[in-house]
Amino acid sequence: QSHAGLFNLCIVVLVAVNGRLIIENLMKYGLLIRAGFWFNSTSLRDWPLLMCCLSLPAFPLGAFSVEQLAFRNVITDAVATCLHIILTTAEIVYPVLVILMCDSAVVSGFLLMFIACIVWLKLVSFAHTNHDIRQLTISGKKVDNAPSTADMDNLQAPTLGSLIYFMMAPTLCYQPSYPRTENVRKGWLIRQIILYLIFTGIQGFIIEQYINPIVVNSQHPLKGGLLNAVETVLRLSLPNVYLWLCMFYCFFHLWLNILAEILRFGDREFYKDWWNAKTIDE
């Protein structure tokens, strides 16, 4: 039997409930979004985090230097591995120390660590892939994770251009070369940028209008009762769902596609239809 009518009723109820919550919030708090939400005078205190973020490219350059020395047989494979371990460890510890020393804001620290984690994952992939390439070059045999038919043009030392492209490209898996599109679709790119700005603003609106008032007006979990804590979590659940959906759409769909279009990156499968997954493994 078809349950389309029941499904439509659930949609109507969902829209009505969410609409009531939106109206209730506006009547109670008014419009809370302000011009200084994204940047204000207090943001200047986090300038060490900006300097730390700008200095992170030094670690990929260090990894590039290690690979150049390894391919020229100046250092052994074991030494190259040790140097990569030191570089990757320092790359992830360095921003943590800066955040702790500067007592930075949560959002600024999160953004810095988010970028640092991406760089760390890229460095790990860069080291592993070049290690496999060196092994293929030296022994002429297959190694783990090597392609079945190796392209000999790719079995060479990484170039600075390939490293820069990899660090900018929306991928965590290093390859000497990637599939590229023929051109940049300027009209499509502009539409994606506009959507990105719109949904970024929606995220700020959700945080400022719905999440912050609930957090500010709620009791401390350790001071209030269990029911108060549960009630606060339930009140935060709905705006958090919308926020996470907007974050997913902004980053995985809009931002990665914008980067891919600018860099003419060919592989656009950044995610699959996880919303249709029936198990956690899917």
Automatic annotation (TrEMBL):
One GO cellular component, as annotated: endoplasmic reticulum membrane
Superkingdom classification of source: Eukaryota
The entry's keywords: Acyltransferase, Endoplasmic reticulum, Membrane, Transferase, Transmembrane, Transmembrane helix
Major localisation: endoplasmic reticulum
Membrane topology: Multi-pass membrane protein
Membrane-traversing stretches: 6-26, 47-66, 78-100, 107-127, 193-211, 241-263
Subcellular location: Endoplasmic reticulum membrane
GO BP terms, alphabetized: triglyceride biosynthetic process
GO molecular function list: diacylglycerol O-acyltransferase activity
Protein's name according to its UniProt entry: O-acyltransferase
Organism field: Aegilops tauschii subsp. strangulata (Goatgrass)
